[in-house]
What we know:
alpha/beta, six-stranded mixed beta sheet, four-stranded antiparallel beta sheet, binds adenosine-5'-triphosphate, Rossmann fold, 32% helix, 251 residues, binds magnesium ion
Amino acid sequence: xxxxxxxxxxxxxxxxxxxxxxxxxxxxxxCIAVLGNNGAGKSTLxxxxxxxxxxxxxxxxxxxxxxxxxPRRELAKKMAYVPQQSLRSHTMVFDAVLLxxxxxxxxxxxxxxxxxxxxxxxxxxxxxxxxxxxxxLSGGELQKVVLARALAQQPGYLLLDEPTxxxxxxxxxxxxxxxxxxxxxxxxxxxxxxxxxxxxxxxxDRFLFxxxxxxxxxxxxxxxxxxxxxxxxxxxxxxxEHRGYKLIVPL
Length: 251
Ligand SMILES: Nc1ncnc2c1ncn2[C@@H]1O[C@H](COP(=O)(O)OP(=O)(O)OP(=O)(O)O)[C@@H](O)[C@H]1O
Ligand SMILES: [Mg+2]
């Protein structure tokens, strides 16, 4: 479990508080959607949890250990983080995904590492791109590659910041289906920042709403209500059920 304890964060000293004493438990075996409007602090929260940013107050524990005191290699085996925007470089796709194995490699990648990478790339339909370069991919193709790298890390916790923002509808569903399947079968903890409420409702089972730098609510499907959506996004919706799925329909 990742325990977020009274986390407060601001960019620079004296700046506005982006997160105000935020506490929550992110449990393994769950797919947790982080929701809230632009600028609410979703990416900042993910960066604090993955040690990219250091909060001024509070702490983050992963399986009981303070992440800010953990050796880098140990943290990398525990958590994989995919940022909202990924850098493109002149790296071959296969090598980029193989980089996910870095925490496990002592000198050189073993056959087992290459096998894991091939399997994940096959699952994400990326094998035809193996010999292409990152800086020659479309936005959606790149997004799939960075997810593949995170999965190659075989983390206990997968932190994804808007992983479907550049994907076409089929790929959005495919990616989230694969992530959910890994969450269910391997009992890892998945935290996804996402704006599409319908995708969140379909693939996630916990919903963490941020509003005005604070935790607005955190709970199961019962928390996805028109009242919450109105309070958090300032938008009127109807929440209906269709074929067993909740659908959020703007009015
Ligand atoms: N490096 C930075 N320096 C100063 N302020 C920042 C920095 N990064 C983000 N902010 C500010 O912090 C607030 C929260 O930003 P954050 O990126 O966490 O929002 P978000 O919820 O992820 O939004 P979005 O949905 O647009 O991605 C915003 O007001 C933003 O302008
Ligand atoms: Mg963001």
